[in-house]
Design brief:
The protein is mainly β. Helix content is 9%, strand content 15%. The chain has one domain. The relative contact order is 0.23.
Length: 104
């Protein structure tokens, strides 16, 4: 797995090389968020540094979206109730492309 494009000019950590989280603008009490973090568009050109023309491979892109209120947060606000302890109120969706297959 390779990090190819990252929003907000975030860089991998010095020791663990992990990309820091983008953050969150979710307001649980109001069941809202602002779309002020991340990037609306990311584009790049990438070449596989481990490519072996003699080996089968497949490639796909994964996008991690910014956190948003989960349906449970919207229901909590709409019905004026408190969700049971341990209920997830925030979700961070992912999107995936169709794979590209390489066969030698």
């Amino acid at each position: 797995m390779f990090d190819v494009a990252v929003s907000d000019d975030r860089k991998p950590g010095f020791f663990n090389k992990k990309i820091p989280d983008v953050g969150s603008t979710v307001d649980i009490k109001d069941a809202s968020y602002t779309n002020t973090i991340g990037d609306a568009l990311l584009s790049t050109v990438w070449t596989d540094p481990e490519f072996d023309a003699n080996q089968k491979a497949f490639y796909y892109a994964r996008v991690i979206e910014i956190p948003t209120p989960r349906w449970t947060a919207y229901d909590q606000k709409a019905y004026g109730v408190t969700a049971p302890k341990g209920t997830a109120l925030v979700v961070q969706d992912r999107a995936y492309t169709s794979p590209i297959w390489y066969t030698p």
